[in-house]
TrEMBL record:
Residues given in the record as substrate binding sites: 55, 263, 319
Domain PurM-like C-terminal: start-end pairs: 153-305
Keyword Repeat: no
Matches recorded under InterPro entries: PurM-like_C_dom (IPR010918), PurM-like_C_sf (IPR036676), PurM-like_N (IPR016188), PurM-like_N_sf (IPR036921), ThiL-like (IPR006283)
Domain PurM-like N-terminal span(s) in chain numbering: 29-139
Residues noted as binding Mg(2+) 1 in the record, renumbered to the chain: 47-48, 123
GO molecular function, one term: magnesium ion binding
Primary enzyme class: transferase
Note from the entry: Reaction mechanism of ThiL seems to utilize a direct, inline transfer of the gamma-phosphate of ATP to TMP rather than a phosphorylated enzyme intermediate.
Name used for this protein in its record: Thiamine-monophosphate kinase
Alphabetical list of SUPFAM superfamilies matching this protein: PurM C-terminal domain-like (SSF56042), PurM N-terminal domain-like (SSF55326)
Length: 324
């Protein structure tokens, strides 16, 4: 199977109804896609790359890999409150494996259709397995959620109920912990099938003062908000939402996973304390639980406290591809 047969079979025909339309009159098949912007909207663009052995294991099911490749990019749009519109896919493959491509495309397009986002172009080549997606979305002018808006006295929230499960799955594969049955599968799903919080991001427009997604660890990612906003924070380490599976582990491992685990793709955001009722309503509208985990303070830096109000050492950092 050649390159153009591969594109036609798995990525053009496989996309179905999202291949073209009024918003995307020209998608795959020309040198460039043609996209009609919505009047009054601003465009948001982000790219993420997944490299075998660095971001995912060689044993991951292709359908789950297709899902995750798009999900981690949609999570960036969610963090900015954007509505997904289009994406491109650059795919390097060791060989044209039809079984792998069929599964990968199924997972990719199932999530794409769930969020109404069209594949509009990209590239394929022979080489080590490497997936790079660029997503494009839009928000009403001036309403994008950014990292730079946190204000003194704001509450800090995190979405979801299983923070840290993806890191616990990694520890399983490293052999440092053991789980079996449903517990094993639940944390593996958290790592391989993250759910981008697109609806929550949209519901928080005009309400959250800042936001970011948790890709490299809660402490490190929250630190980006603090640095861009010129503020500090108090974080209640033991108030972070976690699954029963993670809560059954020793406290040191729980804190490692929830505070610096990464790969969660939940949203961390800030909002004025006076708007707690509105935050709760936005979370309900998006069908996504959120938990208040701290507050913004004037003193620079991040301070961690345990359930008894004692200061915890901040010995955790976010993931760094060139240091980890």
């Amino acid at each position: 199977m050649g390159e153009f047969d591969l594109i036609q079979r798995f990525f053009l025909e496989g996309q179905g109804r999202l291949a073209a339309g009024d918003e995307v009159p020209v998608g795959i098949g020309d040198d460039c896609a043609v996209i009609n912007p919505t009047p009054g909207m601003q465009w948001l663009v982000s790219s993420d790359m997944l490299v075998e052995g660095r971001h995912f294991l060689s044993t991951v099911a292709p359908e789950r890999l297709g899902h995750k490749a798009l999900a981690v990019n949609l999570s960036d749009l969610a963090a900015c409150g954007a509505t997904p519109r289009a994406f491109t896919l650059a795919l390097s493959l060791p060989r044209a494996d039809e079984a792998f491509l069929a599964g990968f495309a199924r997972g990719l397009f199932a999530l794409a259709q769930a969020h109404g986002i069209a594949l509009v172009g990209g590239d394929t080549t022979a080489g080590p397995l490497n997936i790079c997606i660029t997503v494009m979305g839009e928000v009403p002018r001036g309403q994008a959620l950014l990292r730079s808006g946190a204000q003194l006295g704001d509450d800090i929230y995190v979405s979801g109920t299983t923070l840290g499960d993806a890191r616990l799955a990694l520890e399983l594969f490293r052999g440092t912990v053991r789980l079996a049955g449903d517990a094993f599968e639940s944390v593996r799903r958290a790592m391989e099938l993250p759910q981008p919080r697109v609806a929550l991001g949209q519901a928080l427009r005009g309400l959250a003062s800042s936001a970011i997604d948790v890709s490299d660890g809660l402490c490190g990612d929250l630190g980006h908000i603090l640095a861009r906003s010129g503020v500090g924070a108090r974080l209640e380490a033991d108030a972070l939402p976690r699954s029963a599976t993670l809560a059954a582990q020793d406290l040191a491992l729980q804190r490692l996973c929830t505070l610096s685990g990464g790969d969660d793709y939940e949203l961390v955001f800030t909002a004025p304390a006076a708007r707690r009722v509105e935050v709760a309503a936005a979370a309900a509208l998006a069908a996504t639980p959120v938990t208040r985990i701290g507050r913004i303070e004037a003193e620079p830096g991040l301070r961690l406290f345990d359930a008894q109000g004692q200061v915890l050492p901040l010995a955790l950092s976010s993931f760094d591809h060139f240091k980890s």
